[in-house]
Amino acid sequence: MDSGTELVVRRMVSADADEVASLHLQAFEGYFMSHLGLEFLRRYYRQFTMDQEAYSVLALVEGRVVGFVVGFDVGSSFERRFFREHFVWLAWTVATKAVTNSAVRTGLLQRMLFFRRAFASLFGRGQGAKQQTRPLPPDVPDGAGASLLGIAVHPSFRGQGVAERLQDAFLKLLKDRDVSWVRLSVKPDNKRAIAFYEKVGWVRTRSTTVKVSFLRRL
Questions:
Q1: Is residue 215 predicted with pLDDT exceeding 80?
Q2: Per-residue pLDDT for 116 more than 70?
Q3: Concatenated DSSP letters of 123-135
Q4: Domains in the chain, please, with CATH?
Q5: Predicted TM-score (pTM) of this structure
């Protein structure tokens, strides 16, 4: 990024979903959600702009989306509402892609809880009810918490401070809503992300062969 180029950070709106979905495919190539396709990603990220329990921030250079960060409240009904609204389309999309895409089939086996929630969202009681969550680890602070689901930066803009600007804006948004802590997890082989979160002040709370978990107090 040139020294004279301004980086703009702002909240995501519905009209940004196409660009955000496209950036997801570049930033998270080979990930399960990427295999579900561009239309799935459009619908998924558009949900963040419409849900009161969700958070989303963009980074733009000359009007082009070069990064984003999304998350939602711990214990929120975000996933339930997304599944309920798109259940039929989502079920058809996953089923058809699983026939031809081995990565989707493998991902399905690894994410059975994800799809049990999708099924429960269609037949569960109370659209606005809080979804069931597993008990939080004993070292999680008191007060309202949020989950940071991911920070994506276009490959051409990595290492230029974009991720840190996005993180700072995201944390400020949480503070403004009286959230007192935030958690996240990354794959163990994502050394770049692990190094970034440790560098900017996140505390590693757990490491397994599946994920590395971090926590940050606000």
A1: yes
A2: no
A3: HSS-TTSPPP-PP
A4: 7-135+143-217 (3.40.630.30)
A5: 0.85
